[in-house]
Amino acid sequence: MAASKLLQKMIMNAMNETKVCLTCNKPIRGRTDKRFCDDQCRSTYHNQTRPPLSDFARAVNRHLQKNRAVLMQLVTDPSGRAVVTKAKMEDMGFAFHYHTHTYTNKKGNTYFYTYEYGWLELPQGKCLVLKREGT
Q1: Most buried in the list 5, 33, 49, 80, measured by CB within 10 Å?
Q2: What are the residue ranges spanned by the domains of the chain?
Q3: Is the dihedral of CA 84, 87, 91, 96 positive or negative?
């Protein structure tokens, strides 16, 4: 019987221990494994502990995001494909030298991808723009 009372006392002490937020040191309520009092403190903590992106990396990310947005606007057909001119893509702000990966098919055609959207350069200044299947 004494062991169960000791166990109860240990549980009560553990429940009464007040954990504090790693960012602002305010008391934390809720789950026992919680480390932050709210989302803002969690975000602040992680932003402070991660190394900042260089200006170069930030610029590349902006170009990739812009390219993806342009490709997404161009692929409106349910087939997930569209043929557009390179000039139209450039007018929309597309930068052809920024892409995430390439794919070369058996015929030797190289598709350039920005995440799930890709393009294949065609003759006469046109491009086949497509969305990768299954995404």
Answers
A1: 80
A2: 19-51, 77-135
A3: positive
109: Cβ contacts below 8 Å, ≥ 6 apart: 120
- What's the pTM value of the predicted model, to 2 decimals? 0.64
Please tell me the predicted confidence (pLDDT) of residue 54: 84
Non-local (6+) Cβ contacts of 52 within 8 A are none
Tokens of 59: 């610029």
Q: How many helices (H) and strands (E) does the chain have?
A: 4, 5
| Residues paired with residue 83 on neighbouring β-strands, in sequence order | 128
pLDDT at 135 over 80: no
Q: For residue 48, what pLDDT band results from cuts at 50, 70 and 90?
A: confident
Please name which of 135, 126, 134, 128 lies closest in space to residue 75, comparing C-alpha atoms.
128
At 80, is the pLDDT very low, low, confident or very high (cuts 50, 70, 90)? very high
